[in-house]
Write a structure and sequence with these properties.
Layout lengths: L2 H24 L3 H6 L5 H26 L4 H18 L6 H29 L5 H15 L3 H11 L3 H19 L26 H30 L7 H29 L1 H15 L2 H4 L3 H29 L5 H29 L2 H22 L6
Length: 389
């Protein structure tokens, strides 16, 4: 790796640490903050569509742009605009306000997410990629470990508004770090950034389509954790968790995730990403049964410790698998379509889980996630490309 790439990778790491922290601060309280304005869980599920629409519309466009302009400028734009949106949340009071904010946040963060993923893929060395990527993610996770606890404690002790203002302020640090990235990531003349998507020589190969399908179904887990899990933990008679306890649970997840990522990266290099994906997704589904049959805060924290490892295994192995099959010069487009698969899954998952939560029961919602994750693990074992190991 050249010094130019090495320095840019370190700065990109710092950018992601700040973004991980600012997102972590609001993660345990965002759904509870919206719920405190009188919205039902089904309405919160519908709000998820607003957020997913922003991703759906703008991530493909961001993918195309990322192959044609400097990703650094897209990252800076996203940080500036998302800072304004974070600071606007405390002033929202109706479902329409929250829908607009969710759509706006996902729209601008599309540019950030695509650019960061694509630049990371370009800057990581090709040899021992899993090991390097595992350490990279571990540092990012360590930087945001205490963010959920901070957000939960502040909202419980003071108000829901302060975490949003804190997240807005932290964005300035990421903006400064991104401005010093020197890596020239513009595509070279004659590159294949504008090649076909379908057909001979196209991007949509069978291995690529397989990982897109697996990721799409995995979004049921991510949407459940973002929109419904804090409410479930807060209102379930099994836990009755406070904001601080929910923040602690999410912090524990980050701790075990960060501690395990280096080892998981090595495992991906040794035994292949397909096996890690199947095991991680399937065991994660089984771990949610603990939220149904266990009681008390201590078991909740133990569940969080296990889930941190399994979430890291699932997300990391899918990304490493994707990086192993992507063509050079089209990282933006690859990440854009990958994210579009997430968006399709999220648009289906969010309202479906919300309706199940309100129409049947909270337990039925958790059971649905369990069934979908276990089924996704079996699907991954069947359709994913055989490991390159």
């Amino acid at each position: 790796m050249t010094e130019d790439k090495g320095g840019s990778l370190r700065l990109l790491l710092l950018v992601q640490i700040t973004q991980s922290f600012r997102g972590g601060v609001v993660s345990p309280i965002l759904a509870l903050f919206i719920r405190s304005h009188g919205l039902s869980v089904a309405q919160i599920g519908m709000l998820g569509i607003s957020g997913m629409l922003g991703w759906l519309i703008f991530e493909p466009l961001s993918g195309v742009m990322a192959d044609r302009v400097r990703k650094k400028y897209m990252i800076m734009f996203a940080i500036i605009t998302s800072t304004v949106i974070y600071a606007s949340y405390p002033f929202a009071s109706s479902i329409w306000h929250f829908a607009l904010l969710a759509f706006s946040m996902s729209s601008v963060m599309s540019a950030y997410a695509i650019s960061v993923k694509a630049m990371t893929a370009e800057l990581l060395p090709s040899s021992e990629r899993g090991k390097t990527y595992g350490r990279f993610l571990s540092v990012i996770s360590m930087g945001g470990i205490f963010a959920p606890f901070v957000g939960g404690y502040i909202s419980s002790a003071y108000s829901y508004s302060i975490p949003f203002f804190l997240s807005a302020g932290i964005g300035v640090l990421g903006l400064i770090a991104s401005s010093f990235i020197n890596y020239d990531d513009r595509p070279s003349v004659g590159g294949n950034s504008s090649g076909p998507i379908f057909g001979e020589g196209g991007l949509m190969t069978r291995p690529y389509a397989s990982i897109l399908t697996v990721r799409m179904f995995f979004m049921f887990n991510l949407l459940f954790r973002h929109h419904f899990l804090p409410i479930y933990l807060h209102e379930s008679p099994n836990f009755r968790a406070s904001e601080t306890q929910i923040g602690t649970y999410m912090t524990i997840i980050r701790v075990t995730s960060a501690l395990s990522q280096t080892v998981l990266g090595d495992l991906n290099d040794r035994i292949g990403s397909k096996r890690i994906t199947v095991a991680g997704v399937g065991l994660l589904g089984l771990s949610y049964l603990g939220l149904i049959y266990m009681r008390g805060v201590l078991p909740l924290f133990l569940i969080g410790a296990v889930q941190g490892v399994l979430l890291a295994a699932s997300n990391m192995s899918m990304m490493i698998h994707l990086m192993s099959i992507m063509p050079e010069g089209r990282t933006g487009m690859v990440m854009g379509i990958y994210s579009e698969a997430e968006n399709v899954g999220g648009i289906v998952a969010s309202p479906s889980l919300g309706l199940i939560y309100d129409g049947f029961s909270p337990v039925s919602c958790v059971q649905t996630v369990v069934i979908i994750l276990i089924s996704t693990a079996f699907l991954a074992g069947i359709i994913m490309k055989k490991d390159e190991k």
